[in-house]
Specification:
- The chain has 93 residues and is an alpha+beta fold.
- Helix content is 16%, strand content 32%.
- The protein contains two helices and four strands, in the order E-H-E-E-H-E.
- A hairpin with a 2-residue loop joins strand 2 and strand 3.
- The radius of gyration is 12 Å and the shape is globular.
Length: 93
């Protein structure tokens, strides 16, 4: 089953990037590859099904909508942490 969440985070927005500069756009990594979590937390995640930027309420905050196909415990928070971003608020829909 698919999970869709809207969240506010402090990540850089996605852009057209290559694999070489994914570290400059952490959200692109979620789309392209998923992220490696520790084995304790389920290991490698699948890439997200959909990710769109909703708004930029402040200079350091980006609101995004994300859809994932697996739902491991606290997966979205762990995925964003793994790419160097935090989740300030999470709303599951």
């Amino acid at each position: 089953s698919s999970r869709r969440s809207t969240l506010a985070n402090n990540a850089n927005p996605t852009s057209n990037s290559t694999d070489d500069d994914d570290h400059d756009y952490p959200l692109q990594t979620l789309l392209d590859h998923g992220v490696a979590l520790s084995a304790k937390h389920g290991g490698q995640t699948k890439p997200v099904d959909a990710l769109s930027i909703l708004s930029h309420p402040s200079r350091t905050t980006t609101r995004v909508s994300i859809t994932i196909s697996e739902g491991k415990n606290r997966q979205i928070r762990r995925m964003f942490h793994a790419v160097g971003s935090g989740v300030m608020k999470l709303h599951r829909v």
